[in-house]
Amino acid sequence: MTSFSKHLTFRWADLDPNFHVRHSVYYDCAAQHRMEILDSLGLNLKVFQKMHFGPVLFREECVFRKEITQGDSVYIHTTVAKMRADASRWSIAHEFRTEDNLLCATLTVDGAWMDTKLRKLIDPVPEIAVNALLSIPKSEDFIVS
C-alpha cells in the first residue's frame, strides 16, 4: 500500500466499557496523523499562522469493520481519495489495518483551505498547500473532481 503509514498504540483510556477502542479515538488518531503528514511536508502551525490559512473540515465519517482492542498491532494508512485540480477541496482517507492487513475501519474527511483572517475559503490556494496535497499518495480509487 502506498500511503503515509504509522503504527498506533492504544492506552487504557482509549477503551470503552466493551474493552475495545472507543469510536472517538479513531477520529483523534486520524486528525493527529493528518497534521503530522502536513508538518512533514512543510505545512506546520507556524506556516499556517504566518500565511493566515489552514485546513477546515466539512465532513468526517468512520465506517467500523472490526473491533480493535488494546493489545492489537494496528497501523493507520493515509491517502488522498479525491481532490479538485486546484487543491481547493479534497478528501483524505485513513485506513486502520492490523499487522496482517485486515481492515478494521475507514475514516474519511472532506475539507478545504480557509483564510483564517477573512474566515472564508481561500482563493487561490497557496502553492505550499497544493504541493503538499500533490505529495500525499493517492488512493487506488482516486478521483479528480
UniProtKB/TrEMBL annotation:
InterPro entries linked to this entry: 4-hydroxybenzoyl-CoA_TE, HotDog_dom_sf
Pfam families, A to Z: 4HBT_2
UniProt xrefs under SUPFAM superfamilies: Thioesterase/thiol ester dehydrase-isomerase (SSF54637)
Entry keyword set: Hydrolase
EC number annotated for this UniProt entry: 3.1.2.-
GO molecular function, a single term: hydrolase activity
PANTHER family with a match to the protein in the record: 4-HYDROXYBENZOYL-COA THIOESTERASE FAMILY MEMBER, LONG-CHAIN ACYL-COA THIOESTERASE FADM
Name of this protein: Acyl-CoA thioesterase
Organism: Flavobacterium flavipallidum
